[in-house]
Each structure stands twice: as structure tokens, then as C-alpha cells.
Amino acid sequence: TDHYAVIGNPIEQSKSPLIHSAFAQVTGQDMDYTKLLAPLGGFAAVVDAFRASGGRGMNVTAPFKLDAFAYATDLAPSAQMAGAVNAMKFEGSKVFAENFDGVGLVRDLVHNLACPLMGRRVLILGAGGATRGALMPLLAEQPAELVIVNRTVAKAHELAALAKQHQTGQVPVQGLGYVDLQGQTFDVVLNASSSSLSAELPPLPASVFAPQCLAYDLTYGKGLTPFLQLAQQAGVTQLADGVGMLAEQAAEAFAWWRGVRPDTAAVIERLTVPLV
Ligand code: ATR
């Protein structure tokens, strides 16, 4: 039996053990997956001990994604671009590190929600770690345009510059403040700010939602967040939270560890909470 775990603080709320156990069962993989609580400042010691006891890989959740970035010996481009790590694989003295949040988001949008990004105008709210991790996977889909909007406009500018510097295509990328959104509309609006964690509404004009728009909140388990309520009141009928992103990033990690990609539909169905 191979051992895996998710590490965080707090960790009780994590759905990763449920998700990976379900994946292991349907793919017939001989593995277990547990929760590890690390004290703040105690990340490396807990990971060292897990590796010494034969651990093969880990997911990393708040507040340790930067600790994992520092701990890794081999950072994948996804982790470098995100500036954070959410999955590790241990091989001898090597610690391979990835960040699957961005690909998980895009896979959920394009595959599960049948919302193509190519040629469409995409707006992403927030300029923190969640947005940073999503930039390259979003740009790889070749949207018509990607706009990053943030309260602190300088951070939106920084991420737009970072994206321009790294993208291989020619997608126009802009960083804006919320007031600059007056008169603009978008086909896909993604809330990657942390506003929903505190039940706050970003200062977003309701006019940004184009007809047939999809509004997506990257948080999970918060129901109809103020952002999704605004979208609904603006007439948006396609509303989604981050449950599919959670399942898809897990499937990516599972495939990386085990060489087999599980289907996510059953897990998504099991974890979906109605948006009301
Ligand atoms: P994460 O890693 O989850 O993205 P973060 O790096 O702390 O978290 O970033 C949080 C993001 O949410 C920031 O872009 C923040 O905006 P500021 O940079 O202007 O602080 C954004 N944010 C948090 N609360 C918000 C709110 N109520 N409305 C709009 N944006 C908000």
C-alpha cells in the first residue's frame, strides 16, 4: 500500500481524502490517503517524517503552499508560474512539485461545464495566488482577451505583465481597476478573489455580464456567494462554484502519482451543494 496525504492548518475540512479514496477505489489503486495537521512553522518537519515513513506524495493546502514551494527540489513550470505548490511527489531525495489548480479550473470550465474559452472575453477578479495560478492555463485556451481586475490596481498590472512575459500566444492581457470596467462586457467572469471567504461582494458593475455569460466562483461550499448573487440578479443563468475545479485538480495529481486519470463525475456529484 502506497501512502499519500494532504497537509494544512486547519485540515479537518479537507475533502481531498474523500476524493482520492474514491479515485483509488474506482481505478483499483493500492493506496491510502490521510489528513496531516502541521503546526504553523512546522511544515518541513511533518513532511520529513511522512517521507521517512514511506510517504509517496502529498497535496498542500493553506497556509503551506509557499512552504512547499521552498521545500521542493524540482518545481514544475505550473508551480513556478503560480509561485505556489499544491502537489508533491517524493522520489528518494527528490521532491517534485506541481500546481494543478489552474489546469483544474480550465478543465472544469471547458470539459465539465462545456464553456469554451477560445475566442471569448474572459474577466478574472483578484490578483492573488489563485489568479496567478490560473493565468497560463487560461491563456493556453486562446481567449479573445483576458482582463485581470483588482482593488489594488498595481497588483493587477503586475500579473498582466507577468502573463504577457510568459505566454507563448498573442492573447491581449490587461490589468484594470473595478471602475475601469464600466461599459465593458465579458463572456466568462471568474471570481478568483478571496471575497467569498468573508461573504463580501467585490465592487463589480453588474453590467459586465454579457448575455449567455458564465459566472464562476473559485471558492467551494459557500453556496450562492454575493458574487454569484450579483451575476444571478444581472440575468446570468450559468452559475458555478469551484467544486469541479477541486475535483479536477485532484484528478490531475492522482494521474501524476499513479499514471491513471480517474473520471471525476461521481465525485463532483457527491460533493455538489446546490447554489441557493
Ligand atoms: P489567494 O491566494 O487566495 O488569491 P491572496 O493572495 O490573499 O489570496 O489574494 C486575495 C485577493 O482577493 C486579492 O487580489 C484581494 O484584493 P487586494 O489585492 O486589492 O487586497 C482580493 N480581495 C479580497 N477581498 C476582496 C473583496 N471584498 N473585494 C474584492 N477583492 C477582494
TrEMBL record:
Q: What class of enzyme is it?
A: oxidoreductase
**Per the record, GO CC terms?**
cytosol
Enumerate the Gene3D superfamilies for this protein: Leucine Dehydrogenase, chain A, domain 1, NAD(P)-binding Rossmann-like Domain
A GO BP annotation:
amino acid biosynthetic process
| Ranges where the Shikimate dehydrogenase substrate binding N-terminal domain occurs | 6-87
- Residue intervals passing through the bilayer: none
Entry keyword set: Amino-acid biosynthesis, Aromatic amino acid biosynthesis, NADP, Oxidoreductase
Q: Where is the active site?
A: K65 (proton acceptor)
Any GO MF annotation of the entry: shikimate 3-dehydrogenase (NADP+) activity
Q: In which pathway does it act?
A: Metabolic intermediate biosynthesis; chorismate biosynthesis; chorismate from D-erythrose 4-phosphate and phosphoenolpyruvate: step 4/7
Give every Quinate/shikimate 5-dehydrogenase/glutamyl-tRNA reductase domain span. 116-196
Reactions listed under catalytic activity: shikimate + NADP(+) = 3-dehydroshikimate + NADPH + H(+)
Residues binding NADP(+) are G126, A127, G128, G129, A130, N150, R151, T152, V153, A154, K155, L218, G242
Binding of shikimate, residues: S14, K15, S16, T61, N86, D101, Y220, Q249
Q: Where is the SDH C-terminal domain?
A: 242-271
Q: Which SUPFAM superfamilies match?
A: Aminoacid dehydrogenase-like, N-terminal domain (SSF53223), NAD(P)-binding Rossmann-fold domains (SSF51735)
Record-linked Pfam families: SDH_C, Shikimate_DH, Shikimate_dh_N
**This enzyme's EC code(s):** 1.1.1.25
Q: Which family does it belong to?
A: Belongs to the shikimate dehydrogenase family.
How does this protein assemble?
Homodimer.
Q: Which function does this protein serve?
A: Involved in the biosynthesis of the chorismate, which leads to the biosynthesis of aromatic amino acids. Catalyzes the reversible NADPH linked reduction of 3-dehydroshikimate (DHSA) to yield shikimate (SA).
What is the name attached to this protein's record?
Answer: Shikimate dehydrogenase (NADP(+))
What organism, scientifically named, is this protein from?
Answer: Limnohabitans planktonicus II-D5
Its ancestry begins with: Bacteria, Pseudomonadati, Pseudomonadota, Betaproteobacteria, Burkholderiales
Instruction: Name the gene behind this protein.
Output: aroE
